[in-house]
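Field log, afternoon session.

UNIT: design team B
ACTIVITY: writing a sequence onto a fixed backbone
BACKBONE:
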């Protein structure tokens, strides 16, 4: 491969990098995209897509096992790990081919190697020992993240695993011990419990999914317990040892064993050996600091996605990609740049039932001194939820008391990840709870729970029996 000069060089082809490349190409920019592993990044190969493919398999398994309640007899519903893994690989492969084709058809130059900054407007790529240079006035670092490790529970790939390892496991572990009750730990707990593993989650905080609305973590804990998942909160781990399996001893003396141990305690930004120092950029433990326009301290050098440490989610990386590319065009046209807006970032947890959240929680609003009104509505009072047997769940909307503006929405229940899109759109457009009540939602749908939760803010949801007035 020859050295090249382009308008934009991007390091990393995850949902941040590859989307930035395609968007820039749409606007006529010449783009080089450097990727050392797989086009599509963590999201496509070891994150969002493969996990959700497994979630889909176990969802079907759950339904098949409960089919008799729907009046359908299924003689035997059993999970076949090999077939589940094969389907996962097929879906990933199909999407990877699609990403490659999109890049090629948009004339993005793909450079397969490890890139590092080598001076102003210069990227050096190591392609299997061969060196290639790519020059551009603008460079985007989108190198993503990797699983964090615990110093006392180092990954061995046999008994102590990270999420990448667990994803490709070929045999179902009899006992799965999980350190970390964040979204990745909870999703794996939900998957493996449904497949038949005995799952235990050790979480250091006083609730699952710390950082999200408290009620969501508590609801998930109850649901996990019903599904046989053991949840240990406030778990302070003293030691982890391996001996034909893994065991974690807590400071209070309790000991938990697993044939496999998943360590899922967050992710670390990929900032090493990127040559950031050559551009005077200082990364910290959260990642590469950027301003509201995703620019680093070095003009012309941007960072997006997990490597920035802000909302490490695929759709945030993609949204940041859009902002950077559009601002490059603003710069070309001399118009004002657009800052990144994080007011309505949805986050979804694909457990059973699902969890989805956007905007402020009641707790966060109180911390910011904002008075709120909250409306709740249970799925159990929704006709469609009864029809589909998805009655476990709640929608909670948070509105600013003074203006009625929607500040956040928090959903626990079937299809929460799809439902949250409606709340996100309303919040992003600055809608009030009153405007939500004036919107027509189709019947019978789970979406009606959003309408009724908005009505509950005013104390008058139709499908809740009113409390008798105090005498
Ligand atoms: C198990 C799991 C489940 C997840 N589920 C979800 C989900 O449901 N929804 C969601 O929104 N998010 C989910 N995520 C998070 C999501 O995967 C990340 O937020 C997203 O992939 C970040 O995108 P990115 O573009 O910043 O980086 P990445 O996807 O991490 O991609 C970075 C790319 O850069 C490459 N790279 C790194 N360094 C270099 C270099 N020096 N030169 C060249 N290439 C380099 C890497 O090989 C990689 O391909 C999940 C993550 C995991 C682990």
């Amino acid at each position: 491969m020859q050295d090249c000069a382009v308008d934009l060089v991007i390091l990393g082809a995850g949902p941040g990098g590859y989307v930035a490349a395609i968007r820039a190409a749409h606007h006529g920019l010449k783009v080089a995209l450097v990727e050392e592993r797989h086009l599509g990044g963590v999201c496509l190969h070891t994150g969002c897509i493969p996990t959700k493919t497994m979630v889909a398999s176990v969802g079907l398994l759950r339904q098949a096992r409960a089919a008799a309640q729907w009046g359908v007899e299924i003689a035997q519903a059993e999970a076949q790990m090999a077939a589940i893994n094969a389907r996962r690989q097929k879906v990933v492969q199909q999407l990877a081919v699609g990403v490659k084709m999109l890049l090629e058809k948009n004339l993005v130059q793909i450079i397969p190697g490890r890139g590092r900054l080598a001076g102003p407007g210069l990227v050096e790529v190591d392609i299997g020992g061969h060196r290639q240079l790519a020059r551009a006035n603008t460079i985007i670092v989108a190198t993503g993240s990797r699983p964090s490790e615990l110093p006392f529970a180092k990954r061995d790939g046999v008994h102590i695993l990270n999420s990448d390892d667990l994803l490709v496991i070929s045999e179902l572990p009899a006992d799965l011990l999980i350190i970390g009750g964040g979204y990745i730990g909870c999703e794996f707990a939900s998957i493996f419990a449904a497949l038949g593993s005995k799952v235990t989650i050790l979480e250091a905080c006083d609730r699952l999914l710390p950082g999200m609305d408290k009620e969501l973590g508590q609801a998930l804990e109850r649901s996990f317990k019903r599904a046989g998942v053991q949840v240990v909160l406030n778990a302070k781990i003293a030691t982890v040892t391996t001996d034909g399996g893994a065991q974690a001893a807590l400071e209070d003396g309790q000991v938990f064993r697993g044939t496999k141990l998943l360590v899922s305690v967050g992710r670390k930004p990929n900032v090493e050996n990127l040559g950031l120092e050559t551009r005077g950029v200082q990364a910290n433990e959260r990642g590469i600091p950027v301003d509201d326009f995703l620019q680093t301290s070095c003009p012309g050098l941007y960072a997006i996605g997990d490597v920035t440490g802000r909302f490490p989610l695929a759709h945030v990386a993609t949204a940041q990609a859009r902002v950077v590319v559009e601002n490059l065009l603003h710069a070309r046209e001399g118009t004002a740049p657009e800052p990144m807006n994080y007011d309505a970032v949805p986050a979804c947890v694909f457990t059973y039932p699902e969890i989805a959240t956007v905007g402020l929680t009641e707790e966060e609003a109180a911390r910011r001194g904002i008075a709120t009104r909250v409306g709740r509505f249970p799925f159990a009072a929704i006709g469609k939820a009864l029809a589909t047997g998805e009655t476990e769940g709640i929608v909670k909307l948070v509105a600013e008391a003074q203006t009625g503006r929607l500040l956040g929405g928090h959903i626990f229940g079937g299809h929460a990840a799809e439902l949250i899109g409606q709340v996100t759109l309303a919040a992003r457009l600055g809608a009030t709870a009153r405007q939500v009540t004036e919107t027509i939602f189709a019947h019978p749908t789970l979406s009606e729970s959003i309408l009724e939760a908005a009505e509950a803010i005013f104390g008058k949801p139709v499908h809740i029996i009113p409390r008798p007035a105090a005498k």
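LOG NOTE: Residues 353-457 form a domain with the Enolase-like; domain 1 fold (CATH 3.30.390.30).
NEXT ACTIVITY: expression trials, pending approval
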